[in-house]
Amino acid sequence: MQGKQIGWIALYIRLALGVSFLSAVADRFGLWGKPGASNVAWGNMKGFMDYVNVLNPVVPDVFIPTIAWIATIGEIIFGILLILGFQTRIVALLSSLMLLLFALGLTVGVGFKATLDYSVFSASAASLLLVCFRDIPYSLDSLVKKKQRKYSINV
């Protein structure tokens, strides 16, 4: 594959993951609709916290809000940074680990089939694939790299 084709693939992976993270957060904040509405998973943070409780049956209830907010903040940060392509390799690695933890929680709390149905392993693997790209074209990373090259001193 040519460099330009790889760049488009990296862009597609970044946008697919980033938008998916932000869509999940939008659902928690009720932006996709109220709880119980068609195609709405949670509809509010309470519904999401109840779901986090199902995924973490061995975790004391007192820690569930913290876990829910850490996941939410992580998804906001990872979503935005992946879309922008900033610190892509680091963000991709961290998001892959977060998705893997979600897959494990989903397997324990709901069952292995749900993990496959929601393509969590696929998303985690796609995120990990981004780590393998040395150059991330069409990104803030590539702009920063160009500026660094432009202003570097050749000795």
TrEMBL record:
The chain crosses the membrane at residues 7-26, 62-84, 91-112. It is a multi-pass membrane protein. The keyword Membrane applies. This is DoxX protein. GO terms for cellular component: membrane. InterPro entries: DoxX. It is found in: Membrane. It comes from the Bacteria. Keywords: Membrane, Transmembrane, Transmembrane helix.
